[in-house]
Amino acid sequence: MAKVDFEVPELDQYARIPAVEPGTMSRSKPYVAKAEFQADLGFPGELVDDWQNKAIAKMGELLGKYRSLQVYLDSCVKCGSCTDKCHYYLGTKDPKNMPVGRQDLMRKVYRRYFTLAGRYFPKLVGAEDFTKEVLDDWYSYYHQCSQCRRCSVFCPYGIDTAEISMAAREIMDSIGVGQKYCNEIIGKVYKIGNNLGLPGPALGDTLEGLEEDVYDDTGVKVRYPLDEEGAEILLITPSADFFAEPHVDGLIGYGKVFHEAGVSWTLSSYASEAANFGMFIGSYENMRRVAQRIRKAAIDLKVKRIVFGECGHAWRVAYSFLNTLAGPWDFLDPRYPVPQHICELTYDLMQQGKLKLDKSQNDDKVLTYHDSCNVARASRMGDTPGGQFDIPRAIIRATCNNFYDMDEETIRERTFCCGGGGGLLTDDLMEVRVKGAKPRVEALNNVMQEKGVTHMAAICAICKSQFTKVLPFYGMEMDQIVSVHQLVSNAIILTPGEEDEAAEDADEAA
Ligand code: SF4
Ligand code: SF4
């Protein structure tokens, strides 16, 4: 565990609303993107001359384009319902991390330049000039919002701070103030195809290695194909699945599910990334460019279906926007949803009795489940309301004997963010990540104490990476976080193919 220069909060047994400590997180600022990373995305390389006027003009453009933004900025009645709902406020005590406090950073600028009262009587309506100090506050606090949308669930007007935070980041990018982590990653997707910068040949080697590992473990040849033209399914999965723990165990599970379904599939070296950080920086154009790679890969590989692996925000982009970003998908098989989530596919196979599962293979674990924000509050699964909550749980229950949910105030649509979403999964934001994880870790700790829970499953690559890193700060083990398809992988009883039986006969004859 890395040495840190901040105090890790103590876990409380019951949710506690802390007293405010203004300014405690004003020093938290992620590294600014260098000119070269900005250029790849079409943004200026450094703070432009006349940045104030350009930022205000950009804000005007966004207010015209996204009417919801203006509604959100106009409709807050300061009722206070959201103040204790953000994990970053609960973990840091900084009032600018209250959702309404975060919104007000933009609202005061909006009022100053876009409302009559703000133009003539700024002090009366809390309007302020867009000064460098205000810009610095924006950079700090709009990078302490994981765009998780929890606050919007509790706001009587449905004000979505995530959208305000996306708009703020878009305005900052447009004047040359971008965040290094997100913008560098998007550039890697353009140049290489994935967030990690893993080139095609290295990806091919990794997949070959997985095939060998699975064969050694099971005696069954499960395939992990790359760039196979004419495969039925194109799997779009987060690049963390290619090597990081516990993500790769999930990828092993997807391959086993496809094997049992008897369906051909492939990964693409061109579109080897499900993540779409264009959403985090609020840039429609960059989100579209990333999504268009999936379309090109699907056309080039002549697939019939697209399935997404375990990634929360990627599923949000796919479920909510893929058709407008990269459709129409009229060349795909209309009998299947476009796109489909791997959990939907696995669940359908379970319903049809096509997967044989031995739950006892996961008897060394007592499970709970973390609903990832973007899946929970910004998407659906299956064809019934709440499918995004019920389908992953049904898969866990079918693969494990021991499962307990965390406190109901912290799951399903009220789930707490892992603390690392929205483009915050970078070491330069470790303090806000650790403190922001507190409410989720508290709920986990409670089921560990009360029910003997040992592991928490998730279907989001960012959640898995974040928990691997932050659980040790709270005295827990990094491997307590597991992939849902890792549980499937452990429990699934594989059917040997003809090739496997012939190899077994040859071994016996020898
Ligand atoms: S969207 Fe999430 S992180 Fe952002 S202010 Fe709301 S609760 Fe906090
Ligand atoms: S809950 Fe909604 S209306 Fe109330 S203070 Fe928060 S943002 Fe404003």
Explain the overall architecture:
This protein is mainly alpha-helical. It has two domains: 47-175, Fumarate Reductase Iron-sulfur Protein, Chain B, domain 2 (Orthogonal Bundle); 192-491, no CATH class. It has helices at residues 35-40, 51-65, 67-75, 87-92, 99-114, 116-120, 132-141, 150-154, 161-174, 180-191, 200-218, 247-261, 284-301, 312-326, 342-351, 373-378, 387-399, 430-436, 438-451, 461-470, 484-491, 498-509; strands at 233-236, 265-266, 305-308, 340-341, 367-369, 455-458, 481-483. The strands form two sheets. The chain has a four-stranded parallel sheet. Strands 5-6-7 form a three-stranded parallel sheet, sandwiched between helices. Strand 1 (233-236), helix 12 and strand 2 (265-266) form a beta-alpha-beta unit. The longest helix is centred in the middle third of the chain and has 19 residues, at 200-218. It starts with 34 loop residues before the first helix and ends with a helix. The relative contact order is 0.12. Bound molecules: iron/sulfur cluster (SF4) (2 copies). One iron/sulfur cluster is lined by residues 76-82, 99-100, 155, 157, 159.
Topology at a glance:
Blueprint: H1 35-40, H2 51-65, H3 67-75, H4 87-92, H5 99-114, H6 116-120, H7 132-141, H8 150-154, H9 161-174, H10 180-191, H11 200-218, E1 233-236, H12 247-261, E2 265-266, H13 284-301, E3 305-308, H14 312-326, E4 340-341, H15 342-351, E5 367-369, H16 373-378, H17 387-399, H18 430-436, H19 438-451, E6 455-458, H20 461-470, E7 481-483, H21 484-491, H22 498-509
Parallel strand pairs: 1-2, 1-3, 3-4, 5-6, 6-7
Helix pairs in contact: 2-3, 2-9, 5-9, 12-21, 13-14, 15-17, 17-21
One iron/sulfur cluster (SF4) binds at residues 85-86, 88, 99, 102, 145-151, 161-162, 165, 417.
